[in-house]
Amino acid sequence: MDPDRKRFSRLTAAALRPLVITGAGVSAESGVPTFRGVDGLWRSHRAETLATPGAFAADPGLVWEWYDWRRSRVATARPNPAHRWITGYLAERPSGLLVTQNVDGLHRLSGLPDPVEIHGSLWTVRCTVCGAEAEDRRIPLPIPPRCAGCGGLLRPGVVWFGEPLPAAALERAVTAAAVADLVLVVGTSAVVYPVAGLPALARDAPLVEINPEPTPLSPAAMFAVRARAGEFLAPLC
Ligand code: OAD
Asked: Per residue in 74-123, pLDDT tens?
């Protein structure tokens, strides 16, 4: 085994309560575009301008078209070796936790039973009138989709910029960070809070990062793997 994989295996094997944090990069090799990469634009819109309550209030149809496009991209995507390695790793460590910023559902699809999907899911919808939440896997959606119960406008079951994170999910993440004996951060630019702040809560736990590019977390990392996550982890699956 090459030295990087050897070191990575040694560090990860030693942990009993690892906190694994993932972002869009973990799904890049499944064909899901990242947010801030060169393929992150949709028509000429940036994610940050569409994923807001203001954008939805101004033009729900436009925002729904973007989500409908993302759902159709993700519907055919399959977990890659990075998802699979994380699932296998945490299956052996019941006190570990995965916190993902991804809304694509690929960690679940790879067999991970209870990931913290801290930014919600592309596959849930919530009524803006009666608040009912439901799973909805229709592709394409009627735009804009309406609540089966009350006819109100539905919104995606995701967290937008400017909105608080779901309290229960945040609590699980913060608690896991406080007791973690390793923090593994995979495929996130680590610029969106509060997730980007979780590693700092894990006081003495070593930080390991897998990302082809440096991030604001890199200076604090004990070990930074500069590689694509799926490629790096495939031989370790
Ligand atoms: P970004 O698009 O900001 O960052 C993706 C990161 O993945 C970058 O640092 C890339 O270098 C890295 N990357 C690309 N390919 C990779 C690969 N094959 N293996 C490993 N890493 C790779 O996505 P996030 O950090 O997830 O929030 O963005 C965080 C949040 O901002 C998202 O959840 C979303 C977004 O706007 C909301 O919508 C609330």
From this structure: 999 999 999 999 999 999 999 999 999 999 999 999 999 999 999 999 99
- Cβ of 101 closer than 6 Å to ligand 1, yes or no, is yes
The reply to whether ligand 1 has any atom less than 6 angstroms from the CB of 51 is: yes
Q: Are 11 and 208 in contact (CB under 8 A)?
A: yes
Could you list the beta-strand ranges (E) of the chain.
18-22, 97-100, 116-117, 120-127, 133-135, 154-158, 182-186, 207-210, 223-225
Structure tokens at 156: 């995606």
Tens-place pLDDT, residues 112-125? 999 999 999 999 99
Best of 20, 52, 101, 215 to mutate for ligand 1, by most ligand atoms within 8 A of CB?
Answer: 101
Taking the C-alpha atoms of residue 17 and residue 179, their distance in angstroms, rounded to an integer, is: 7
pLDDT digit string, tens, across residues 27-39: 999 999 898 887 7
**With contact defined as beta carbons under 8 Å apart, do 183 and 18 qualify?**
yes
Nearest to 188 by CA among 70, 21, 33: 21
Task: Let me know: does 180 contact 202? Beta carbons within 8 Å.
Answer: yes
Q: How far apart are CA 126 and CA 107, in angstroms?
A: 22
Q: Among this protein's residues, is 119 annotated catalytic?
A: yes
- Determine the residue of 27, 99, 211 to mutate for testing ligand 1's pocket, defined as the one with the most ligand atoms within 8 A of the Cβ atom: 211
Query: In what order do the strands lie in the sheet containing 154-158?
Result: 133-135, 120-127, 154-158
Q: Is any ligand 1 atom within 6 A of the Cβ of residue 196?
A: no
